[in-house]
Each structure stands twice: as C-alpha cells, then as structure tokens.
Amino acid sequence: MNGAESLVHSLLKSGVDTCFANPGTSEMHFVAALDRIPGMRCVLGLFEGVVTGAADGYGRTTGKPAATLLHCGPGLGNGLANLHNARRASTPMVNIVGDQATYHRPLDPPLTADTEGWARGVSGWVRTAMDVSTVGADAAAAAQAAQISPGQIATLILPSDTSWNEGGIVAEALPRLPTPLAAPSQVDEAAAILRRGGEGVVLLIGYAGLTEEGLVLADRIRQATGCRLIADTSGRIPRGQGRPLMERVPYVVDVAVAAMKDTRHLILCSAKKPVTFFAYPGKPQTSIPEATEVHLLARKEQDPIDALARLAEALGAPKVAAPNNGERSVIGTGALTPESFATTVGALIPEGAVIVDESITYGRGLGGFTKASAPHDWMNPSGGAIGGGMPMSTGAAVAAPDRRVINLQADGSAMYTVQSLWTQARERLDVTTVILSNRKYQILLGELANVGANPGRTALEMMDLGNPDLNWSRIAEGMGVEGASADTADRFADLLASALKRKGPFLIELLI
Ligand SMILES: Cc1ncc(C[n+]2csc(CCOP(=O)(O)OP(=O)(O)O)c2C)c(N)n1
Known about the structure:
Elements: H1 3-13, E1 18-21, H2 28-36, E2 41-44, H3 48-62, E3 66-71, H4 72-78, H5 80-88, E4 93-99, H6 115-120, E5 125-128, H7 135-146, E6 153-159, H8 160-164, H9 184-195, E7 201-205, H10 212-225, E8 228-231, E9 237-239, E10 247-248, H11 253-260, E11 265-269, E12 293-298, H12 304-314, H13 338-348, E13 354-358, H14 366-370, E14 376-379, H15 389-399, E15 405-410, H16 411-414, H17 420-426, E16 431-437, H18 442-450, H19 457-461, H20 472-478, E17 482-486, H21 489-501, E18 506-511
Parallel strand pairs: 1-2, 1-3, 3-4, 4-6, 5-6, 7-8, 7-11, 8-10, 11-12, 13-14, 13-15, 15-16, 16-18, 17-18
Antiparallel strand pairs: 9-14
Bound molecules: thiamine diphosphate.
C-alpha cells in the first residue's frame, strides 16, 4: 500500500467521504488511489476558490468535514479567501495539499512556496507529513482536529514522495475530543442578570448555538425574561415558520448603533462582542454602547447548547410552543424592486431548502419576507470575503442531494467564483441561482460616501460592471447550465417557480 492509499483509507475510516479537488502533479497518486478504493466521492472544481468554498458549504450543511485536494502553495493560495470565510464560520474541513517531494524541495523548483505559512493563517491545525508510514495517522489526526468544537480547518501538507512510497499504514478514526462545558459561574452570572428582568439585555448567540435546539432554548429564555435574541454572523441558521426569530446586528454602522443603543447587558453565547466591519472617520467601532456590561455564558469552544439548557433551567423558563411567525409572504407583481424580489422568494422557498445568501445590497429586505416561509436553513459567507456564495451552494447541494439549494447572488461577487456553475452542471446539482444583476459594486458606492472620499470618474469606473455588460444566460449556458432573465416581478415568479421544480441547476438573471 502506498501513502496515498493509506491516506484515502484513513480519511474514510474517519468519516471523511467527500473530496472537492483541483489536482496537480503532486496529487496524482491520491487521485489514482480513488480508482482502487471505493467510497470517496470526488468533485472537481475548476478554481481552488470553488473547491474551498464548496467544502465550506458542505461542512455547514452536514456538520462534518469534507476534504479538499489542492496543489502546492499556489493552489492553496487561490483557495485562501474562502478558507478565510470557512474559518470565520468555524466550519470543519480537512485540506490535503500536495507538495514537492522532500528530497526535491531543497532544489527550489518553481512551485515551491511557504505552503505551511500560507496554511497557518486560515487553519487551526497544520502538519506536513514526513514519512509514508505515518500518513494514515496524520490523516486521522487531521479529521479529529477538524471536529474540535466548534469546528476548524485542519491542513495536511503531503510531499509527493510520502504519497507514492510503499509502506502506508491505515489508521483507525481517533475519538471525538469532548467539548468543554461552561463553568457553573458563567451560567450563574447570566442567570443573575436575567432574573432582574430582560429589559436592556441582549443574548447574542453564535454558530454552534444556532441549531434548532439552541433556538428553542433561547426562545424559552426570551419568553421567560423578555431579553432580546440576536444571532452572530451565522454559519448556518434554521429559519422559517415555527422557528424562533433571531435579530441580526445590521451592517450599516449608524443603523447598528441605533438598533443596539438600549443594550445595558450583553450576554455572549459562543459569540464575540460585535464590531463594525470597518472603521469610519468619526464613527464608533462597535454598535454596543460603551457602558454595556459584557458577560460570557459560553466561550466559542464551549458547548453553547448545554449552556443555554442550564441557563433556561436556572431561570425556571417553561417550555414554549413553536412560534407562529405570521402569514407566508405573497408572490410579487409589477416592477422588480427589493421588496417584490424578497416577497417572491419568501413565498416560494420550498420546505427544507438551503438558502445561500450573497445578495449584498439587494437582499437587505429578505429577513422580514422569509420569516414565515416553509422551514429552511440560511447561510451567508461569513468572513466578508466575497465570492463564497456560488461555491457554498455547490457544496451544500453535494451534501444534501434531497434538498433544494437557492443561491441569492449579487453579480459582482458571482464573478469571483463563477466556475461553480460548471461543477453544478457536471454533478447535476439541484441549485437554483438568482443573479442580482445591477451591473455595479453597489455597496462600494455607499462606502465611498461613508469614508468621506471624493468620487471622481476613475473611482466611479472602479465600481461599475457595465461596459461591457455581463450576459448571464450565456455565461451559464457556456458552462452547461440553462438560464433565463427577468425584468419584472411576474416573470421572476414564473421562472423561480418552474426552476424550483426541475432537476439540476438553473440560473435566473434579474435585471434590477
Ligand atoms: C475577496 C474580496 N474582494 C473584494 C472585496 C471588496 N468588496 C466588497 S463588496 C464588493 C462589491 C460587491 O458587489 P456585488 O457583489 O455586485 O454586490 P452589490 O454591492 O452590487 O449589491 C467588493 C468588491 C471583498 N469584500 N472581498
């Protein structure tokens, strides 16, 4: 058995059975091993940002890691932005990065780079395999590391001789490391605050706490005390009819400051104190008032569900019925506007859908219009690096073939990783992509004013995607995905309703 074979066998033993790949020479033994070992689904992405973003979407959907297969430092480098997004969402993931053979590396061949260094910035665990006999054990250690609560990126760098040499040894899965629990004093402190009443108290919950169970516990605490519930920028959040509603801290600084101005106590559950995306001249860096007292119910690595359960119990918060979030929104008519777009999406979301939202400016109204939609999961690229939406949709569809994925996708962000469409076509994935084609970097026009810069012609040209206009139906068609465009709400509703019923990918361009 060679090292590559021991790697594939060991990944499978650790439950890693899906690999998003963009291989090169140093990964040839890995891909060759796949033909001899059944059980690993390997999905080709035509750019590493697609590969890493797909692994992010897969990890968020299943809660378990996919592997990526990347080629040397430059391949890893191409995938870094979506690894950054995945790191921000605490997505479990195992990167396998093929690299120069140990004895060839000293000659400094062209693809040699500081692969470990580049990996370290996005990974919680990094190792370079040193010998064929330990590659299997390295793979098991990587899979274990990826699943340390709440999830992290583990990167295993594989010099090509450790892959092709004979002498590989398969490693059994290592045990899941226990998730630490919040100390009694953390729960007591939060309970003491909430017993005085929930007015002015915000319970801010982050990724691992945003499960159905976590939301139900949080809702009990809200109903017993009257506190506010806010979701930290989410990895994945269950939404729709019957699911407790969570607020979000708004993106725009002044709006965020106004929304949070009455906060006297902030209780953090697997979340960080909110900061603004950027500093702006003369504006605050956090939306939370300076005098707010901050309390830590659960640190990020502690079990947030256990902490919420103990808090609910300490407060004697009774069980509550699933909330009624009101009437489902209706299909929009007439002109395309953010409202007619959002109400149509809200009306048509099918049960169990995964919504990947990289709608940037046009989607700001979606929250309200989708709160009573059929139950679904919602994901946003978490680290602010645009270009996550299309790959995440691809990975989510690989992870959940029985669920519909709807990608609400701003056009500028779409162009970063547009090759995702080809993978969707090749794998016949049920992804419905809605391109919000405003032909601008709209958000940056607002940012220009926010930072107090003076827009001239050159600056404005840097935010304009016209000249030439992107033709989305033809881009999609060129990658094997059927597409159509809409310039009215009625046409959008017709296209979306039929796209959601068909097998395989479809792209709708909204001319907004
Ligand atoms: C990787 C990365 N590159 C660049 C940026 C800067 N950036 C933020 S938003 C944006 C444009 C977004 O435009 P689009 O996706 O079309 O959405 P719109 O603002 O038009 O709604 C850019 C370039 C970023 N956040 N991440």
